[in-house]
Design a protein that fits this description.
Blueprint: H1 14-22, H2 30-40, E1 45-48, H3 55-66, E2 76-79, H4 83-97, E3 105-108, H5 114-123, E4 127-130, H6 132-141, E5 151-154, H7 157-162, H8 166-174, E6 181-186, H9 191-200, E7 205-208, E8 219-225, H10 230-240, E9 245-249, H11 253-265, E10 270-273, H12 279-291, E11 296-299, E12 312-317, H13 324-331, E13 341-347, H14 352-362, E14 367-368, H15 374-395, H16 399-412, H17 416-427, E15 483-488, H18 498-509, E16 519-521, E17 526-531, H19 536-542, E18 546-547, E19 550-551, E20 555-556
Length: about 600
């Protein structure tokens, strides 16, 4: 029988081994055991693995082991789809490198001051973790050089493809030295990712970690047949479950705020996490969650990408994801790299087909659970009260209160238990112990939602029984919230395409592609519709963002600009290849003649 793999047996440096030990890593995960030896030998690696398998350490530890700290130039470049993941990966590198002198790590992402990034580049950061848009800005400005680059990592390549960044990724790869080590990690392997592998990698070693061996198998997964009373239900589940930290996933940014406010009113320490928050606010929220000051975060998929917090042991899918990969990424926030967790999925009747897709894709057993009863919740509340009383009895002198209670019992002619019961009745006015038994039945097909239930009202394609099995209807701009039209100083004659504009806006402002409205290309400028009341700091930032080597110079147009017509607007050749969710795909225009560059909009809370 072969000896079990340990970090000590992987030939990592003593400084890195010490850092790994201090972080509490016991034994390598499967992907770490397979990738680390290959990367230490400077081989290219193509990794097919889900989130939560420990792949950050799988590439970070060996690449860090191979760099020369005396060379004050970028030696490792990691590309990530979102700023959250960039920050998370950079923090991991810093933890692994804390015992290695002279190593500096820098995260480059939109929303952070250029001065901070330029200062770190001048100091000679050897490890760069970046989002594509901000990195291209630095390349165009000439503020970053790759002459000493040894290794390039594409992390979550399929997600970068889905978000429309894959052309930017190829552009960046063309700017790097041909002789380097390349690593590509992806949960799926669509054709465009395979093409990148064939074009830019040198005989890569393939590492495939199946879903059964990854996050999915370490997470207990259950589903609840959701009723129209999802708000009441989530309070029940959060009270009944045992967890340190929890993350609740919803579809829209507006929902994160409303649900966080609801949970705070119910006594939970809760906060939203979404793309409308500036970077500092999001970082504060994550730090509060890590430190235990916050127990529940309500997040969108984009904002939670790359979130790795040890305390997260519960994931609740308040809104079911539209695709199975998003589900795997969601539950990957818990059960990471050897830890265990639990995931609860709210499934409405007309969403059962999505549940079937998830079960088939993950090859998982997802059991049905009932809503926690009032009795279960009451028992939890009583147990919590008993714990508080125990602490009070151990740490406080209650002699005075004993005397007051004895006098009250004598004057009121009450038995001690009657007095205690009356006091508890008064106390529960602030923190109720008794739970009202509300009948929360799964929603029937013909049942309509009450108007005052936040966001539980189904979309048009979700109403009407078996019709929900069909492909969801595509939305158009009539479904969107108020939009403003902005002018961008880049047009056809500069070589711009719709996907360039979508990628820049999505990456720099963290606006999901579904919330970007009509884009119209003109000869020397373009126009784009974005949600009303964009923050001033975001608009100021767009003045400095480059597209096709030109500053965007984004400005709000006059009111009549929304009705202007482009001079000529044929759909670019490759436009049909843009990667979006099914609901976000542009409608085909069946009319003859030139077609407008249009994108559907969905910026309303569902």
């Amino acid at each position: 029988m072969s000896e079990p793999v340990t970090f000590e047996s992987l030939n990592l440096s003593p400084a890195i081994l010490k850092a790994v030990e201090e972080l509490g890593y016991k034994t390598p995960s499967e992907i770490q055991a397979q990738c680390i030896p290959l990367l230490l030998e400077r081989k290219d690696v193509l990794g097919l693995a889900q989130t939560g398998t420990g792949k950050t350490a799988a590439f970070a530890l060996p690449l860090l082991n191979n760099i020369d700290p005396s060379v004050k130039q970028p030696q490792i470049l990691v590309l990530t789809p979102t700023r959250e993941l960039a920050i998370q990966v950079a923090e991991a590198f810093e933890q692994y490198a804390k015992g290695t002198r002279g190593v500096e790590v820098l995260a480059l992402y939109g929303g952070q001051s250029y001065s901070i990034q330029l200062s770190a580049l001048r100091r000679g950061a050897q490890i760069i973790v970046a989002t594509p848009g901000r990195l291209i800005d630095h390349i165009n400005r000439g503020t970053i050089k790759f002459d000493s680059l040894q290794a390039l990592v594409l992390d979550e390549a399929d997600e970068m493809l889905r978000m429309g960044f894959i052309d930017d990724v190829e552009n960046i790869m063309e700017k790097t030295p041909r002789e380097k080590q390349t690593c590509l990690f992806s949960a799926t392997m669509p054709k465009q990712i395979q093409n990148i592998s064939s074009k830019y990698m040198n005989n890569p070693e393939q590492v495939h970690i199946s879903a059964r061996n990854s996050t999915v198998s370490s997470v207990e997964q259950v589903f609840w047949n959701a009723s129209v009373h999802k708000n009441k239900a989530i309070v029940r589940f959060l009270e009944a479950e045992q967890y340190e930290g929890a993350i609740v996933f919803v579809r829209t940014r507006n929902d994160t705020v409303q649900l966080a406010e609801l949970l705070e009113r119910e006594g939970f320490s809760a906060a939203p996490l979404n793309g409308d928050m500036n970077q500092q606010a999001r970082e504060r929220t994550v730090e509060r969650l890590k430190s235990g000051m916050l127990n529940v975060v309500i997040a969108t998929d984009v904002a939670a990408r790359g979130l790795d917090v040890d305390r997260l042991s519960l994931v609740i899918n308040y809104d079911i994801p539209q695709d199975s990969e998003a589900y795997v990424h969601r539950i990957g926030r818990t059960g990471r790299a050897g830890r265990t967790g639990k995931a609860i999925l709210f499934v409405k009747h007309n969403e059962r087909y999505l549940l079937k897709n998830i079960i088939r894709h993950t090859n998982s057993d997802i059991a049905q659970v009932e809503l926690p009863t009032a009795k279960i919740v009451e028992e939890k509340r009583i147990a919590a009260l008993q714990a508080k009383l125990t602490i009070a009895l151990e740490n406080k002198d209650i002699t005075f209160f004993n005397e007051v209670a004895a006098n009250m019992a004598q004057k009121l002619e009450l038995a001690p238990e009657d007095l205690a019961g009356a006091l508890l009745c008064l106390a529960q006015q602030q923190s109720p112990i008794k739970v009202e038994e509300v009948k929360i039945q799964p929603r029937e097909r013909n049942e309509r939602n009450p108007r005052n239930e936040r966001s539980d009202r189904g979309r048009r394609n979700e109403r009407g029984g078996e019709r929900a099995e069909r492909k969801p209807r595509e939305r158009n701009s009539r479904d969107a919230g108020p939009m403003d039209t902005y002018r961008i100083e880049v047009g056809r004659e500069h070589g711009v395409q719709v996907k360039n504009i979508v990628g820049a806006i999505a990456n720099e402002a963290d606006i999901s592609s579904k919330f970007i409205g009509d884009i119209r290309l003109h000869d020397n400028h373009s126009t784009v519709q974005l949600p009303q009341n964009m923050p001033k700091d975001v608009l100021d930032h767009f003045q400095k963002v480059f597209i096709c080597k030109r500053p965007m110079g984004m400005t709000l147009t006059k009111a009549e600009a929304a009705s202007e017509r482009p001079e000529r607007s044929e759909r670019p050749a490759g436009d049909k290849k843009r990667s979006f969710n099914k609901d976000d795909s542009p409608r085909g225009d069946k009319r003859s003649g030139p077609r407008k560059e249009r994108r559907p909009v969905s910026f309303t809370a569902k």
